[in-house]
Structures are given as structure tokens and as C-alpha cells.
């Protein structure tokens, strides 16, 4: 466990930067996107209680992953599902090289932005958990096989993040230590 809040904050910043770096390197071109947004999967829960996943392009991802914003048509199924159950996940997959993934979990809110036809809304996800595992960016909770993700959780007051797992590996990363092989 971290011995000082400064050390923990620096390592949490390493996680945020590594996950943004992974997302930025996922091949994608979108003239409407700004600042390195890339496709992700938005996972909601449907009326029958099953997960529903669809590809979306978030228009904004906060540097610390505290908030993710995307927009869509007001009458879409994803909006109905978010209104019925605001617990959602947004995930990215890195298929380059050894690969990696990141999942942000949180509470979503639907915010009207345009009353035109078709009406548009923002879906704003306030993230409370970030899980990441990337061989390319060296983000994982163990230094052996990489089967455990680094997990950050927001504190109850939502002012900051804390490690749920993965601190030791990031400490090694920050100090430039190489992962052990086999």
C-alpha cells in the first residue's frame, strides 16, 4: 500500500495517462471528434435485465476519467435503458501488439441538448471505478502474467481516486523497473 498520498497521487496520475495513451493509440479517424476521442462500447442493462453493448464515440473523456460525455438521439434504446437503470460501463479495447483494455463504470445521466428533429441528448457518465490492463502501456496489478487489472475507485465524496489493486506494479513502472519474465 502507498505510504504517502503524494506517491499514491502520482501513481494514480500514471494510470490516467497510461489509459489515455492506450486509447489514443487505437486506430480511428473521426472528423467530428476532438482531442483523441476513440470508439468505445457503452454497456447498459435492457428491460429484461441483460447487458446491452453498442459502439459509441465519446465526445469528451475527462483527463482523470471522472466524467465521460457522449451524445445520441433522444429516442434511442440506450437512452431508455440509461433512464431505467443509470448504472453503465464504458470500455475500450486495444488490439495492438499484446493488447489491453480499460473499463470505466459509473452512473449515467441523460441531459437534453437539442430539441430539433431528431432531438439529441448527452449521456454523461460520472465514473466511480476504472479498471485497466494493458501490456502495451504496462498497466496491470501483478508483475507476472498480467491477469489482474489495475483498479481505481473514487472515494465517497467523488473528489479523488484511490487504488483498489495494482499499486505495486505502477510503483515499479514509475521507477523504471522491468517486469519479470515467465
Give a written overview of the molecule.
- This protein is of the alpha+beta class.
- The C terminus is likely disordered.
- Strands 1, 2, 3, 4, 5, 6, 7, 8 and 9 form a 9-stranded antiparallel beta sheet that branches.
- Helix 1 packs across helix 3.
- The chain contains 3 helices and 9 strands; from the N terminus they run αββββαβββββα.
- It has one domain: Electron Transport, Fmn-binding Protein, Chain A (Pnp Oxidase, Chain A, Roll).
- Helices cover 20% and strands 38% of the residues.
Write the SSE topology:
Blueprint: H1 5-25, E1 40-45, E2 51-56, E3 60-61, E4 67-73, H2 77-84, E5 87-94, E6 100-114, E7 120-134, E8 150-154, E9 161-165, H3 167-174
Antiparallel strand pairs: 1-2, 1-5, 3-4, 4-7, 5-6, 6-7, 7-8, 8-9
Helix pairs in contact: 1-3
